[in-house]
Every structure is written in C-alpha cells, then in structure tokens.
Write a structure and sequence with these properties.
By secondary structure, the protein is α+β, with helices and mostly antiparallel strands. It is 26% helix and 35% strand. A hairpin with a 3-residue loop joins strand 4 and strand 5. It starts with a helix and ends with a strand. One of its GO terms (molecular function) is fatty acyl-CoA hydrolase activity. InterPro entries: ACOT13, HotDog_dom_sf, PAAI_dom, Thioestr_dom.
C-alpha cells in the first residue's frame, strides 16, 4: 500500500515527530496522490496519532455502500488496511509492510450517511513481522467491526 518513495521521503524524520498527527496526515495525503484505489477512501480524516496508534474519521456515502445502503465489506477491509498500516508507520517503522493476513469480524452493519471512527493499533512490532488490530465504530460509538492484521516488513 505504501510505496518506497513515500517511505523514503519520511525516513529521516526524527522518531519523536514521526508519529505526530500532522506527519501521519501528510503521509496519507501523499498516498492519495498516487491515484490508486486509495481514492475511494480519500475523505479519511486523521483525528489522532500516537506511537503505534491512529484514530481517524470517515464519512460513509453512497459510493461506499452495497444495495442495502450499508458499508460494503471490501471498503471496510480497505479502511482497516489503510489505518492499521498508518499505525505501523506511526510506530516508527519506515516500511508499511506487505499484508500476510487480514481478518475482519463484522459485528453490525454500518449505515450510509454517517461519520464512522476507525482505529488502528500496532500491538506487536518485530524485526520482520507486525501484529496490528483495527476497530470501526458507528456514529453512536457502537463497535461494528474488529480486525487483526499481520504484515511482513521488507528490509
């Protein structure tokens, strides 16, 4: 998801500033400039970033939904992949990694026309493998989705 260009651009950033909310937002905006599938999630707003943690907001509109007017599962997976990968980067890793496993548990449907909260947490980051968790909450702060994400980090 994150090109070497983007990661190398931020490689020299001091570790105490690497995971700042502003820096994570800049990284996300750079990702959007590559005109890939990330354009479907362009309205993500980074609310908070700490070392190993990213909290964001996303407005679910019609383009993100299925025929039932609920958030499409593939879009949920993309959101979780993006935010957990940013959590890994906020942990000070200069490599967003390659997904080895992404597991989502859908607890309740997310209706169209609402802001949702997406959280990404780097629970364990080793030399080559990172274990990440993600959560999505609806506008009423009800837990709608949990996820686990394992990433391999190239050297």
């Amino acid at each position: 998801m994150f090109s070497k260009y983007i990661l190398n651009k931020y490689k020299l950033c001091p570790i105490n500033k690497f995971y700042s909310t502003e820096n994570i937002e800049r990284i996300f905006q750079d990702i959007l400039r590559f005109n890939g599938y990330e354009k479907t999630i362009k309205n993500i707003k980074i609310l908070k970033s700490e070392k190993g943690y990213v909290k964001s907001q996303f407005y679910v509109d019609k383009s993100h939904c299925n025929l039932n007017k609920t958030l499409y599962g593939g879009c949920s997976a993309t959101l979780i992949d993006c935010i957990t990968s940013l959590a890994l980067l906020s942990n000070g890793k200069n490599n967003g990694g390659i997904s080895m496993n992404l597991n989502l548990n859908y607890l309740r449907a997310i209706q169209m026309d609402q802001n949702i909260i997406i959280e990404g947490i780097a629970t364990k980051v080793g030399k080559n493998v990172a274990y990440l968790k993600g959560k999505i909450y609806d506008k009423d702060n009800r837990l709608c989705l949990t996820a686990s994400h394992i990433k391999y980090m190239q050297n």
